[in-house]
Every structure is written in structure tokens, then in C-alpha cells.
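Dear colleagues,

As part of the handover before I leave the project, I'm documenting each prediction I ran so the next person doesn't have to rerun anything. This entry is a single chain, and its sequence is reproduced below.
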Amino acid sequence: MKEKVILLVEDNPNDRLLTIRALKRHNIANGIVEAKDGQEALDYLFGEGVHAGRDIVIQPQLVLLDLKLPKVDGLEVLQRMRAVDRTRYVPVVMLTSSSEQQDIMSSYDFGANSYIRKPVDFDQFVEAARQLGLYWLVLNEVPNAK
């Protein structure tokens, strides 16, 4: 069975660490690829920049995407993913602190599969990560890329 990789796109180092700890606590993912901004995420997904030469046939099983990112914001990353056959069906969960209705609506309009506000409490966050992993990495099925 191929390794199930999560692409974690988060600019805040504390939130990145918290998310990784929460995922690993439940052995959710064998591999977590970190991107600190939207451009780094796009480079990974499309095999460009520092990820030039990466086998882009292999895509993450799940993308956890923050909204407010430097260089390229989360909504633009999402739009660009949905515009390309290879990444169109990769599940994207917006994992953000924003509870603004406009952010929620825009995320779904641009093709997010889910929108989750980051819990402040670590135990709640660990439970949210467990549920995310169970659903998106174990139960959910996506079509193959064209």
C-alpha cells in the first residue's frame, strides 16, 4: 500500500507543530509534507521551484490548507488546484482560525471539501485531527487523476 501523505500548508510554526503532534498522536499519517506558504504548496503539488523533479503523479492523500498565507493565499492555492486535472480531486480541508462567513463561502465556492476552524484547546484539536484522519485517509475515496 502506498504511503498516505498529508500536505500541511500553514505559515504559523506553532500551528504547524500542533497539527503535526495531533496527527502523529493517532498515527494518522506516515508522511507529512510541510509548506510554510502558498507558493511552497503550489511548488510541491506541481513539481516546481524547490520541488522541481518531484514525481507529480504522486499527490497527497489530503491537503490541510490555511486561508491566510504569505505569498499566495489559501483560496488561490485552492483555485489553482481545482483548475488542473491532476489535483482537481485531491481532498482539501480548510483548517483555519477564521470564522468569517465570507471565508467559509469562498472556500466552498472554490472547491474546498471541508472547512474546519482550529480549536484552541489541544485536546479538542487532537480529537479533530483523529476524526480528520479517519475520514479523509481511511474512509473517503477519490477518483484517480486524469
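Residues 5-139 form a domain with the Rossmann fold fold (CATH 3.40.50.2300). The longest strand covers residues 5-9.

All the best with the project,
I.
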